[in-house]
Write a structure and sequence with these properties.
The complex is a heterodimer. Chain A is α/β, with parallel strands linked by helices. Chain A is 46% helix and 11% strand. Chain A has a single domain, classed as Alpha-Beta Barrel (TIM Barrel), CATH 3.20.20. In chain A, helix 2 packs across helix 10 and helix 8 packs across helix 9. The longest helix of chain A is centred in the C-terminal third of the chain and has 18 residues. Chain A is globular, with a radius of gyration of 19 Å. By secondary structure, chain B is an alpha/beta fold. Chain B folds into 2 domains: 255 residues, Aldehyde Dehydrogenase, Chain A, domain 1 (3-Layer(aba) Sandwich), CATH 3.40.605; 180 residues, Aldehyde Dehydrogenase, Chain A, domain 2 (3-Layer(aba) Sandwich). In chain B, helix 1 crosses helix 8 and helix 2 packs across helix 7. The longest helix of chain B is centred in the N-terminal third of the chain and has 22 residues. The chains are: A alpha/beta, B alpha/beta. Chains A and B meet through helix 1, helix 2, helix 9 and helix 10 of A and helix 10 of B.
Amino acid sequence: MLPDLNNLPVYDQTGVNERIQRFCSRSIKTSSKTAGLKLAISMIDLTTLEGKDTKGKVRQLCYKAMHPHDSIKDLPTVAAICVYPSYVSTAKKALQGSDIKVASVSTAFPSGQSSLEAKLTETKFAVEQGADEIDMVISRGQFLAGNYQYVFDEIASVKEACGQAHLKVILETGELDTLDNVRKASEIAMFAGADFIKTSTGKIQPAATMQVTYVMLDAIQDFYLRTGKMIGIKPAGGISTAKIALQYLVILNEVLGEKWMNKNYFRFGASSLVNDILMQLVKTETGMYQSPIYFSKD
Amino acid sequence: MRNHDTDTTFKASWKYSEAPESTSHVQIKKQYDLYIDGNFVKPVKGKYFDTINPSNDQKIARVAEATAEDVDIAVKAARKAFKSWSNLSGRERGKYVFRIARLFQERAREFAVIESLDGGKPIRESRDIDIPLAANHFFYYAGWADKLLYAFPNRNPKPIGVAGQIIPWNFPLLMAAWKLAPALATGNTVVLKPAETTPLTALKLAELIQQSGLPKGVVNIITGAGETGASIVNHPDVDKIAFTGSTAVGKYIQKATAGTHKKLTLELGGKGANIIFEDAAIDQAVEGIIDAIFFNQGHVCCAGSRLFVQESVADLVIRKLKHRMESLIIGDPLDKNTDIGAINSKKQLETIQNYIAIGLKEGAEIYQPKCELPKKGNWLAPTLFLNVSQSHKIVQEEIFGPVLAIQTFRTIDEVIEKANNTPYGLSAGVWTQKGSRIFHLTQNLNAGVVWANTFNKFDPTSPFGGYKESGFGREGGLHGLKPYLKFE
């Protein structure tokens, strides 16, 4: 049932900015840095979502996901590969034998401008192809028009179509305008059955910001205290450096803590982030920065 | 609200490695003398005392103890310098103050480290707040030096003479800047005494002033405890006393200067009310509570040490507050990740512990997060007291430590009455999304500063000072020039 959206907590943009600044001033050094970077790798949804994607590119990306950088010992694999529905089966085959998940975007990604029927068909197709996780988009137009029930029902229907697959609900916070709206959309998604809430498609600027992530974490905490259900979170888009990734982990660490500090409850949606993290990891081992040419680009 | 047996702790799992600020660039001498008439001179009686690092009890340096004889020499030097300094054009005086500001900014990191070493405050605060703000005060008042005739048109402003300035240990350098900058810009000369537990940054400032080429005797910095301060207050040739510190000492100073020609400003204690309405952005309000009471270990005269939460959101606020306190990092002040540093002195630690004992005896419910405190040095966990009333001693008296007393309220009139029901009147905070309510409260709260949806924000352009037993006179802004001027 649609939750009561009239008494939701509100957010003060200035106050949230200050809080974020304070998280970002944490100094992550030595062993805590290495641990954080490795954790970040294990949480990445390695993503390619382009019209020019090919099967070959997807297969290469899958190999990279399983072997981020073989010369570093004890390096985890990434959490998942994120592709369009048409490449799910390719990815699934390429990842056989690993425990890396295949995530597929769905529901007329990135705009969501299609009929419910088409969205459900697309979702079912992706699941049939073998997708372990579905990344859906909400109908922002309906949300902004105040048709919350529509948004809620749509998410619930897609959840049903997902079957066993995990559902990540993309709020596309860059189009929601205010932090209060981000909270409202988070609430609708969680009550409608989302397993994860995700900030952005990566196709709209601004994509993930620490501010909206913080608000979503706050919503997840409140939801957990009310229902006992742990919802995951995935900031996506624009997280391209190891430093920023560590700052996100600081926020996660200090707001939700240890139960959420793993790939079951936190993901980064990113593509170029992996290599920057690898570069930092090699630097902490050797004391020197290596040239980017030593890191494979797939 | 909860209908499941959920684990409500959100314990952080990722421990941050040590990240200490480098001290290699910092120079501290083994012994510091008195800075009088442009030189460092030995005290007449040859007495020295140790200054201690409160985070590990280690001695940092020996510092001269000024006696009445030294105070007399310093006041004479200031008197001698006054004639030419006050006759200098405002523009020339402004140049000197600007030069101090710039030198200060260049050496900001060194000052920040020493401030944290000597006083126990986290480097995050001394680096990001104390030192930049202190520099800004010099910059701001440097700008006023040649504009006094425009600041006070047709009133012919003139400097007063020799100012005796006595500053506290909670913001040693920032308070020195608050006092020195307006005094110099207006053409006064100064004898300044930092607190006995935190003299080092003021003495480093003396070195910097010496390098800046400020004419000799314009600023004299002498160290010592209460008796040294009393000698300044009672010296017949001092024209103005500016004091920041406890209300008890403030009362003594007012008695001592009564019937003399001395002008006086006092910035004393406080028991600030931080008021949270049900419509506030609760999560940011909780962060505001943290800033209000745990900033600088609660050693803040304008700390929001009384929290008033509207009844309907009290459970939520307290739950969030406790959660937030779990993620505060307490420890080495020089570690960049430290949120709460060491209590400034053994004596202050005892005072705070005594108040905690009183609170417990009064039957208040205590809450402290589970945190490991270092073995050596002066440490105290951040503390909440719940279920208290206006009649509790811990609600009435200034504790000057990381101890918050929490009460709930129902109506706006009730909270205004309770907030004003204190001998103090320095600060207050209001948290609500409603603009009209903010204005209603700012008009009715008896406090020198009322923050809305924020707390403990300072700016050189904004006047700061108290009502009632929190003192009188304003520092900062245009208002901050007045106490150092006489008008004809």
